[in-house]
């Protein structure tokens, strides 16, 4: 089975399935994890035409790459594999900070290749910008990985417009990954115009607002005790902010009902409609949610529907910052 395809980047183009799969939650952050369920979800994604998979060394830490590697074993030629470096952690989960030194770039890539069980990474992102290291030095080291055949394409994550411009001058950047959804639209001001000026694709993570836009979360108590969304690190899930945001989700649900789709499918359809240079990566660890997300590609949204959605959920209407601590975000 083949899904619709999209091409990220123009100077170093990469063709991916129009909808990818974020694998983070299979190993950490969103409550209980089940390795077997994660592997089954990845394999089902391949069966229904999803080719674009996103992981990172810090998820787990480390074990998510191993999970993805096991799931795609024997099917590497069907996969566009993306992973990330830069959020340095120890095996016990201790966070050491953001590291963009050339030495770390090289060692992190080799470690990821080993855990994934592959000889190259299709899209290698700097996960967060190390503000203590010139971006030219970090991307220069990443470019060496391309020359060595270990990496095919380069990406940035949560980088500012000025940093993206400087990085792209060193080596073509194929894609920038950042949060983008009906609830998070700040990149539209400077980042998205810069991407389009330079011919760089956009890979939105959390296009479902970390599950909030699906309508499946009515109260924070429904989340597992180990779910990080219950903490102050995610203000949009707390108290009055959550109540305000659920009212916005109800408005989306009303429109979705009329279109015979779920709120989550409509939210994904909105992201997909923002341009053919965009390939979102909604995350899930369960097959039914994966299948529901992929069906968003069948939701037809006219300009009238898009206008109605933007009236129902105006840019900036969401309550709460996307992170409780935004210090790691490049601005």
Automatic annotation (TrEMBL):
InterPro entries: Aldo-Keto_reductase (IPR050791), NAD(P)_OxRdtase_dom_sf (IPR036812), NADP_OxRdtase_dom (IPR023210). The keyword Oxidoreductase applies. Residues 19-312 form the NADP-dependent oxidoreductase domain. Transmembrane segments: none annotated. It comes from the Bacteria. One of its GO terms (molecular function) is oxidoreductase activity. Keywords: Oxidoreductase. GO terms for cellular component: cytoplasm. This is Oxidoreductase. It comes from Rhodococcoides trifolii.
């Amino acid at each position: 089975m083949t899904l619709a395809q999209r091409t990220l980047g123009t100077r170093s183009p990469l063709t991916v399935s129009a909808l990818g799969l974020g694998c983070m939650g299979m190993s950490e952050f969103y409550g209980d994890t089940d390795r077997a369920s994660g592997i089954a979800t990845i394999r089902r994604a391949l069966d229904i035409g999803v080719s674009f998979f996103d992981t990172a060394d810090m998820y787990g830490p480390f074990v998510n790459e191993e999970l993805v590697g096991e799931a795609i074993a024997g099917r590497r030629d069907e996969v566009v594999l993306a992973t990330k470096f830069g959020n340095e952690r120890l095996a016990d989960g201790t966070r050491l900070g953001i590291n963009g030194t050339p030495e770390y770039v090289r060692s992190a890539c080799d470690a990821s290749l080993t855990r994934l069980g592959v000889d190259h990474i299709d899209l290698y992102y700097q996960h967060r910008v190390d503000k203590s290291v010139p971006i030219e030095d970090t991307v220069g080291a990443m470019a060496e990985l391309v020359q060595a055949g270990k990496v095919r394409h380069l990406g940035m994550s949560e980088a500012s417009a000025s940093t993206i411009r400087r990085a792209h001058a060193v080596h073509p950047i194929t894609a920038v990954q950042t949060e983008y959804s009906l609830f998070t639209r700040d990149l539209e001001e400077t980042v998205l115009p810069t991407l389009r000026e330079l011919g760089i694709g956009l890979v939105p993570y959390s296009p479902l607002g970390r599950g909030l836009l699906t309508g499946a979360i009515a109260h924070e108590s429904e989340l597992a005790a180990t779910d990080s969304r219950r903490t102050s690190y995610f203000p949009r899930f707390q108290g009055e902010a959550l109540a305000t945001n659920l009212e916005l989700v109800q408005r989306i649900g009303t429109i979705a009902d009329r279109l015979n789709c779920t709120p989550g499918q409509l939210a994904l359809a909105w992201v997909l409609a923002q341009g053919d240079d965009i390939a979102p990566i909604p995350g899930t660890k369960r097959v039914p949610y994966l299948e529901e997300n992929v069906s968003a590609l069948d939701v037809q949204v006219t300009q009238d529907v898009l206008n109605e959605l933007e009236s129902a959920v105006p840019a900036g209407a969401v309550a709460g910052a996307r992170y409780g601590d935004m210090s790691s975000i490049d601005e």
